[in-house]
Design brief:
The structure holds two protein chains of two kinds. Chain A is 70% helix and 3% strand. Chain A is mostly helical. In chain A, strands 1-2 form a two-stranded antiparallel sheet. In chain A, strands 3-4 form a two-stranded antiparallel sheet. In chain A, helix 7 packs antiparallel against helix 14, helix 11 crosses helix 12 and helix 12 crosses helix 14. The longest helix of chain B is centred in the middle third of the chain and has 20 residues. Chain B folds into two domains: 157 residues, P-loop containing nucleotide triphosphate hydrolases (Rossmann fold, 3-Layer(aba) Sandwich), CATH 3.40.50; 83 residues, no CATH class. Chain A: GO terms for molecular function: branched-chain amino acid transmembrane transporter activity. Chain A: Keywords: Cell membrane, Membrane, Transmembrane, Transmembrane helix.
C-alpha cells in the first residue's frame, strides 16, 4: 500500500519538478527570442536622432507569460487532458445519438427558413438588414461555393485552387448579358451555370494528366488568367472599373424590386419602402440555391457517377481497371462543380449590383478551399458549419467594438480577420485533422449504415 | 466466310483460345522486358504464368490489360459470342469495359475509404451508367435506375457470399484483413462481368488456410461463371493445384509451356528456379537439347 502511494507522490513531485524545469526553459527561450525584438526599441526623436528605448517591463511580461504558460500546461493541462481521454475511453460507447445530433440538418434547414422573419421581429425591418444580408446571405454564398467545390475536391479528390474563376464566370455572365441583352435573372441563372460548366470543361481538358501539386498550380494559374482577362479586356468588362448598375432579380417576374416599377413588391403589399424585402428575397433565393446544390450532391453520390468520383479519389488506377473512363469522370466533376460556382456567381452579381475583378482574387479560392478542408472533405454538414464559423466569425469581428476599449481607439478588429482565420484553421487542424466531420457516409448498405472513419478515406492524388 | 471456316477448324481441334498472345515484345529503354513471347490461354481453363522474379510476368499482364502499350506483337481476345478484340490497340478501361477482361493487382488496390459493398458497386459502373441514362434519368428518378440499382446490389451480394465477405459488407474495405482484401479484389473484378480474369499473385501473403480458400474461390469462378483465368503466382501449391496450363517465363522469354506435371519436370524450369552449378551448365544444355529433339519428334508438348 505504502509503496503505491509513495510512487504516486513521487510521480506528482516529478511532474511539478519537470513542469518547473520546462517553464524555466521556456522563459529562457522567450527571453532569448524577444530581448532584441521587444526589449529594445529604436525610434527617432524630434532632432532626427536614433534613440534606443528600453522596455524591460514589456519583455518581462512576455517572458513570464511563456514560463507560466508552459508550467501550467505541463503541470495541469496535460494531466487533465490525459485523464479526460482515459475517462472517455473507459466510458461505454453510447448507442443512440441525441435527437439534436441525428436531425441536425433538418433542424438547421427549418431554422434557416425562419431566420429572416425572426430577425425582422427582433430588430425591425431596417435593423434586420445587417443580420440577413451581412450574415445570412454572406454565409450562404460561401456555403454554396464550398459545396460546389466539395464535388471537385471532396468527392473526386481533384485539388482545385482556381475555383473562384467559375464564380467570376457566373457573375460576369449575368452582369454582361443582363445589361447587353436585358435578359432576366431567371433566364440567366441557368445560362450562367452552363457557361461556368463549359469553362470547367475547358479547364478540365489540359489538366487531365496532372496530379496533386501540379494540378493545384495549373488550376491556380487558370483562376489568375480569368481574373487578368477580366481586368485587361476593357472593351467588354470595363476592366478594373467593373460592371455596375446590374439589374435586380424579380420574384419570377411577378413582383419587382425596382423602386419605380409599377409592380414593386412593397407597393403591391402596401408596405413601407425598404431595401430589406429585397435582401430577404435574396436570402431565400440563395438558401434555395444552396439546398439545390446539397440535394444534387446527395443524389449524385448515390449515382454511379458519384461513386466513380469517390473511387477516383481513392485509387485512379483501380478505377481504370474496372472499366471506368476516368477522363469523362474527371470532366464531369470539374464541370458540375463549376456549374454551382456559376450559379453562385450570378447570384453574387444580382446581390451586389456591381462586379469587378477585385471580388475574384486568389484569396477567395483559398477561403473556399479552407472551408471545404475545415468542414471535412465530402461532408455537407461539416462544410456548412465551417462556412458559418469562418465567414460568420470574421463578420462577427466587425461587431466587436468593445475590443476598442481594451486595445485603444485605433484598434480595428476587422483588420485582424485573417489572423483569426489562420489561428482558427490551425486550431481545428490540430484538434480535428480531418475537419469537423471526418467520417463519410456510405452511399449504399446491406444491413446497417456505418460511417466510414476518416482514417480510411484518402484525400486524392490529383 | 473465312471466319466461319476458322471456327469449324478450331472446334474440331477442341482448341478454343480465349486469349492469343503472338510475338509480344516490350522494351523499356535498353531493357527488353518481354522478348517475342507467344502463348495461348484456352477458354474455361486456368492458365498460370510463372517464372523467377523479374522474368516479366507482370509486364505481360500490364500489356494484356492495356496498362502498357507493347512495343511489338499482337494480343487477341475472343469472346464467347465470337467477337474479337485486339487488346494492344485498346486503352486500359476499354479493355475491361468492351473486351471483358478484368484484372487484380500485385499490391492490392482497393478503394479503402469505400465500404466493401460500395467497392463492388463501383465495379458495376458501366452497367449502372447505362441504366441511369448517363446519370440524367437517374437524377430525375426514372425506375430503370432503381431496378438496375437493386440488381447491382444482388450481384454484389452473390459475390460477397462467394468470397465469404457478406458479414463485412458495410465495413470500409481498408479495415479488412489482408486475405479478405485479396478475396474482395477478386470479387470486385468479377463484378465487372468479365469473360477473362487476370490475377496478379492472388496468393501472395496469404496463410495456408487462406490460400486454400482462394483455390476454392478460383475453382468456383471457373466452374459457375465460365470465366477463364490467367494468373501469376509464386505459390507452387496454388499453381500446381488449380491450373490446367502453365507458361514459364525467364528473362522475358518463354522457357516452358504445358500441363503442370510437364512443367514441373522440365529441366529448363528446374534450372531457372534452382540455378545450376557452373560445371553442370554444359550437361544441362545437352540434356535440354535432347529433350527438345524428342519433343520435336513427338509433335509438341501440349
Amino acid at each position: 500500500m505504502s509503496n503505491i502511494s509513495n510512487t504516486h507522490e513521487r510521480a506528482g513531485g516529478n511532474l511539478t519538478a519537470q513542469a518547473l524545469r520546462e517553464g524555466l526553459f521556456a522563459g529562457l527561450v522567450a527571453l532569448g527570442l524577444f530581448v532584441l525584438f521587444v526589449g529594445l526599441e529604436t525610434t527617432q526623436n524630434i532632432r532626427n536622432e536614433l534613440v534606443l528605448n528600453q522596455r524591460w517591463g514589456l519583455l518581462a511580461i512576455f517572458v513570464i507569460v511563456a514560463a507560466v504558460g508552459r508550467f501550467l500546461s505541463v503541470a495541469y493541462l496535460r494531466p487533465w487532458a490525459a485523464a479526460r481521454k482515459a475517462a472517455a475511453a473507459a466510458k461505454p460507447v453510447e448507442g443512440e445519438e441525441s435527437f439534436f445530433k441525428r436531425n441536425f440538418s433538418k433542424i438547421a434547414i427549418v431554422a434557416l427558413i425562419f431566420y429572416p422573419p425572426i430577425m425582422v421581429m427582433l430588430f425591425g425591418v431596417q435593423g434586420s438588414l445587417k443580420w440577413v444580408d451581412n450574415f445570412g446571405i454572406q454565409i450562404l454564398i460561401y456555403v454554396m461555393l464550398a459545396w460546389g467545390l466539395n464535388i471537385v475536391v471532396g468527392l473526386a479528390g481533384l485539388l482545385d485552387l482556381g475555383y473562384v474563376a467559375f464564380y467570376a464566370v457566373g457573375a460576369y455572365s449575368y452582369a454582361l448579358l443582363s445589361q447587353q441583352f436585358g435578359f432576366s435573372f431567371w433566364i440567366l441563372l441557368p445560362l450562367a451555370g452552363i457557361l461556368a460548366a463549359f469553362w470547367g470543361m475547358i479547364l478540365g481538358f489540359p489538366v487531365l494528366r496532372l496530379k496533386g501539386d501540379y494540378l493545384a498550380i495549373v488550376t491556380l494559374a487558370f483562376g489568375e488568367i480569368i481574373r487578368l482577362v477580366l481586368i485587361n479586356w476593357t472593351e467588354v468588362t470595363r476592366g478594373t472599373f467593373g460592371v455596375s448598375g446590374i439589374p435586380k432579380a424579380s420574384v419570377f417576374g411577378i413582383w419587382s424590386f425596382d423602386v419605380s416599377a409599377p409592380n414593386n413588391f412593397a407597393k403591391a403589399f402596401d408596405l413601407p419602402m425598404s431595401s430589406a424585402y429585397y435582401k430577404i428575397f435574396l436570402f431565400y433565393l440563395i438558401l434555395a440555391l444552396a439546398l439545390l446544390t446539397a440535394y444534387v450532391t446527395i443524389r449524385l453520390r448515390r449515382m454511379p457517377i458519384g461513386r466513380a468520383w469517390e473511387a477516383l479519389r481513392e485509387d485512379e488506377i483501380a478505377c481504370r481497371s474496372l472499366g471506368i473512363n476516368t477522363v469523362t469522370t474527371k470532366l464531369t466533376a470539374f464541370s458540375i462543380g463549376a456549374m454551382f460556382g456559376g450559379f453562385a456567381g450570378s447570384f453574387f452579381a444580382v446581390r451586389q449590383g456591381f462586379v469587378s475583378p477585385e471580388s475574384f482574387v486568389f484569396l477567395e479560392s483559398a477561403i473556399i478551399l479552407a472551408i471545404v478542408v475545415l468542414g471535412g472533405m465530402g461532408s455537407l454538414v461539416g462544410i456548412a458549419v465551417a462556412a458559418a464559423v469562418m465567414v460568420g466569425g470574421t463578420e462577427l469581428l466587425r461587431e466587436m467594438t468593445f475590443l476598442k476599449q481594451i486595445f485603444g481607439p485605433d484598434f480595428t478588429p476587422e483588420l485582424y480577420r485573417m489572423l483569426i482565420f489562420g489561428l482558427a484553421m490551425v486550431t481545428v487542424m490540430v484538434w480535428k485533422p480531418r475537419g469537423f466531420v471526418g467520417s463519410r457516409e456510405p452511399t449504399a448498405f446491406l444491413r446497417e449504415r456505418k460511417a466510414v472513419s476518416g482514417s480510411f478515406t484518402k484525400e486524392g492524388h490529383g | 466466310m473465312a471466319l466461319g471456316a476458322n471456327t469449324v477448324a478450331t472446334n474440331t481441334m477442341t482448341n478454343d483460345p480465349i486469349l492469343t498472345v503472338e510475338h509480344l515484345s516490350m522494351r523499356f529503354g535498353g531493357l527488353m522486358a518481354i522478348n517475342d513471347l507467344s502463348f495461348e490461354a484456352q477458354r474455361g481453363e486456368i492458365t498460370a504464368l510463372i517464372g523467377p522474379n523479374g522474368a516479366g510476368k507482370t509486364t505481360v499482364f500490364n500489356c494484356v490489360t492495356g496498362f502498357y502499350k507493347p512495343t511489338m506483337g499482337m494480343i487477341t481476345m475472343r469472346q464467347k459470342a465470337g467477337k474479337e478484340f485486339l487488346l494492344e490497340r485498346m486503352t486500359d478501361f476499354e479493355i475491361t469495359r468492351d473486351a471483358k477482361v478484368a484484372r487484380t493487382f500485385q499490391n492490392i488496390r482497393l478503394f479503402s475509404g469505400l465500404t466493401v459493398l460500395e467497392n463492388l458497386l463501383v465495379a458495376q459502373h458501366n452497367m449502372l451508367m447505362k441504366a441511369s441514362g448517363y446519370t440524367i434519368l437517374g437524377l430525375l428518378g426514372f425506375p430503370t435506375y432503381k431496378k438496375a440499382s437493386a440488381e447491382s446490389i444482388e450481384i454484389a451480394k452473390h459475390w460477397l457470399e462467394k468470397a465469404h465477405l457478406i458479414e463485412r459488407a458495410d465495413d470500409p474495405a481498408g479495415d479488412l484483413p489482408y486475405g479478405a482484401q485479396r478475396r474482395l479484389e477478386i470479387a470486385r473484378a468479377m463484378c465487372t462481368g468479365p469473360e477473362f480474369l487476370c490475377l496478379d499473385e492472388p496468393a501472395a501473403g496469404l496463410n495456408p488456410r487462406e490460400s486454400l480458400a482462394l483455390n476454392e474461390l478460383l475453382r468456383s469462378i471457373r466452374k459457375d461463371s465460365g470465366t477463364s483465368i490467367l494468373l501469376i503466382e509464386h505459390d507452387m501449391s496454388v499453381v500446381m493445384e488449380i491450373s490446367d496450363h502453365v507458361v514459364v517465363l525467364e528473362y522475358g522469354q518463354k522457357i516452358s509451356d504445358g500441363t503442370p506435371d510437364h512443367v514441373k519436370n522440365d529441366p529448363k524450369v528446374i534450372a531457372a528456379y534452382l540455378g545450376v552449378e557452373d560445371d553442370e551448365v554444359e550437361e544441362v544444355i545437352e540434356e535440354i537439347e535432347v529433350i527438345a529433339e524428342s519433343e520435336g519428334t513427338e509433335g509438341g508438348s501440349h
